[in-house]
Amino acid sequence: MAWSNINRHARGYGSQWEKLRLQILERDGHLCQCPDCKGGFLQPLPAHEVDHIKPKAWFKTGKAQGNPDDPSNLRAVNRECHKKLTKLQKGHRPAVRVGLDGFPVED
Ligand SMILES: [Zn+2]
């Protein structure tokens, strides 16, 4: 239905990302590529999502160079593993600094 396409585009994920996503899932055999699954600690889980190996934010801040959506920076991941990875990445970010007034300080 047409309206669902409009919604999809409104969320910022166009058909180009959709195509790329399927390409990555196909390339990785629809199996999770996270360190836990790949490292053999677990039976590899089925992947339905695509993760940026280097977070997109790194490209914005100049910590990483190039195109964040390059296939070399993408990997298929399981939904639950994706959540774990995102949490880990957030943990590595510097904590929000709080000023003397008790409000977060913007850099
Ligand atoms: Zn995994």
From TrEMBL:
Record keywords, A-Z: Endonuclease, Hydrolase, Nuclease
Annotated protein name in UniProt: HNH endonuclease
Organism this protein belongs to: Comamonas sediminis
Gene3D superfamilies: 1.10.30.50
Pfam annotation, one family: HNH
Molecular function terms from GO: endonuclease activity
InterPro entries in UniProt: HNH, HNH_nuc
Lineage: Bacteria, Pseudomonadati, Pseudomonadota, Betaproteobacteria, Burkholderiales
Domain HNH nuclease positions: 19-83
